[in-house]
Amino acid sequence: MKKYKLLTRGELSFKVFALIFLTVITILAVLPFVLIFMASITDETWLAQHGYSFFPKKFSLNGYKYLINQAHTIGRSYLVSIGITTVGTAANLLLTTMFAYPLSRKDFKYRNLLSFILFFTMMFNGGIVPSYLVWTRLMHIKNTYFALLCPNLMMGAFNVLLVRNYYTTNVPPAIVESALLDGATEMQIFRKIMLPLSVPVNVTVGLFAGLAYWNDWTNALYYVDDPEFFGIQNMLMRIMQNITFLSSGQAGKVVDTSAMTIPSVGIRMALAVVGIIPILIAYPFLQKHLIKGVVVGAVKG
């Protein structure tokens, strides 16, 4: 028969306080998303007169209708973002784990040198202009998918340190030594021992990389001017710029906007909802591994 431990008054009070506190924090975190969604289905005129509200009295789907009219363009951009996020996350995870593995081995000859180079990149960088010249003049990535994959996002020093610390604190050196005595190669150790034992930190790094790729718009801003290569963030930003232009007084000099009703505020909220949906879907499935990977990987090794 299972025995249950009775909580003391102090423990019970702390649990009640923690539950109430975390509930309040959760509500505060969720409310902005609810407000964005409610604003996206609020009538433009009512929104302009009364401002944002969780309980609007007049609803409208004009913002989403506008997006449906742009379905072909947005759909193509979604495919670009999904492809870039998938490939970029896989490449980032592979390079990060392969770089972190030798740094976790105390018998690796060049461990200190590589660690110094890694720390150096966290403190200094060449700047935007030199980076642009290198990527466009030497690497010739302008107006290619590599422009969305490589600059700034392919591998990060923080993620390498996170994985290295996880390897150091959670994979006993005796396992590696035993595998070496059995004749295993370094690649076999990495593939059959390190990767299976480091699922939490791999999921964490993968989520960090995936979020960075999905939300990135600066690479396309710097290195891409062909709309065929625009991801969802850049396409939504361009649509927003077009709406702002049509809503401005200068648009009448180019086209007749007198009969146009542009949901300028509601469309912003609808664009935000469309851009965040994939992240909201994916995060709950990865939350358990994310928390464990961050907590354990952040321990100094």
Give average pLDDT, whole number.
80
Query: What value does the Rg take, in angstroms?
Result: 25 Å
Helix content: over 70%
Q: What's the CATH topology label of the largest domain?
A: MetI-like fold
Q: Tell me the fraction of residues in β-strands, as a range.
A: under 5%
Tally of DSSP helical segments: 14
Number of domains: 2
The CATH class of the largest domain is Mainly Alpha
H and E order: HHHHHHHHHHHHHH
Poorly predicted runs: 256-261, 297-301
- Largest sheet: number of strands, sense, barrel closure: none
Structural class: mainly alpha
* Molecular shape: flat
Q: Say how many strands there are.
A: 0
Rounded to the nearest angstrom, the distance between the terminal CA atoms is 42 Å
CATH superfamily of the largest domain: MetI-like
User: Architecture of the largest domain in CATH?
Assistant: Orthogonal Bundle
Summarize it:
This protein has 301 residues and is mainly alpha-helical. Helix content is 71%, strand content 0%.
Task: Give an overview of the whole structure.
It is a single chain. The protein has two domains: 10-50; 70-297, MetI-like (MetI-like fold, Orthogonal Bundle). The protein is 71% helix and 0% strand. The chain has 14 helices and no strands. Helix 8 (157-170) runs parallel beside helix 14 (264-297) and helix 11 (199-215) runs antiparallel to helix 14. The longest helix has 34 residues, at 71-104. It is flat and about 75 Å long.
